[in-house]
Amino acid sequence: MTPNPSGIHITGILPARWGSSRFPGKPLHVIAGKPLIQHVWERCRQCSRLDDLLVATDDDRILAAAEGFGARAVMTSPDHPTGTDRLAEAVAGLPDATHIVNIQGDEPLIDPALVDELAATMAGDPELDMATAANPLDPADPAVADPNVVKVVISLSGRALYFSRSPLPYFRNPVDGLAVLRHKGIYAYRRSFLERFVTWPPSPLERAESLEQLRALENGASIKVLPTDDTSPGVDTPEQADHIERLLSSATH
C-alpha cells in the first residue's frame, strides 16, 4: 500500500444489489468459475491507493458470498433508490473514511490504475467535490447515438460541464482532435460532499436524463473528469456476462 497523505483515508466501495430488471442476482452470476462481484473485488485488491475496500449489499446471499471469498461486506437497506444512497449508508458506518471511490460491482475488468488515479486526484485537490473518468470515442462511432452510452463534455481545465444520453457535443462544425467522451460509471467523492449530495432532491435535469451526476452539477459541484483508455465493458445482461467469460478465458490461454 502507498500511504495516503496524513488525515486522508480512502475507501473503495462496491455497491451490489440483488434486484435487477434485466439480470436478477447479477453479482453472484458465475463467470470463469467465480461470482461477478468477486472478479471486481480481486481487481480492486490490486489498487495501491485504497486504504479500505468493502462490498455494500442489500441481500444476505451476496453478503455471505462476499465474506466467503474474503471480502469485507456490509448490509444496507433494500429500499435505496440509487447506488449513491446505498454508498452513503455504508459510509455512515465508516468514521475514518474521508474520501470514497464508488466502483461499479459489474465491471470485472476495471483497471486498478484508474481507481488509484481517481483516489490520488481526490486526495491531491481539496477544491474537488467529485472525480470520474471518460474515454474517447470517434464521433462516427454508433455508440455516440446510443442513449445507453452516457457522454460528457468538459471544460479546458478538465471539469465536467454536462452529461447526456444524447450525442454530445453536436458537431455543427468538424473540430480536429475533439473526441466524444464516453462517461465511465466510476466516481470518487469527498465524504462531506457525498453526505450533502444524498440530502438533495432529484434535480430537474437528473429527472429528465435519469443521470444522478446532473444533480451534482445543478447544485454547483466541481467534478474532475480523468481521461482514460480503459474501455473495460460492464455486465448488464447474461449475454454480456458470456462475452466477459470469453475475454477472461482467452486471457488465461
From TrEMBL:
Pathway: Nucleotide-sugar biosynthesis; CMP-3-deoxy-D-manno-octulosonate biosynthesis; CMP-3-deoxy-D-manno-octulosonate from 3-deoxy-D-manno-octulosonate and CTP: step 1/1. One of its GO terms (molecular function) is nucleotidyltransferase activity. Signal peptide: none annotated. It comes from the Bacteria. InterPro entries: Cytidylyl_trans, KdsB, Nucleotide-diphossugar_trans. The keyword Cell wall biogenesis/degradation does not apply. Belongs to the KdsB family. Activates KDO (a required 8-carbon sugar) for incorporation into bacterial lipopolysaccharide in Gram-negative bacteria. This is 3-deoxy-manno-octulosonate cytidylyltransferase. It comes from Haloferula helveola.
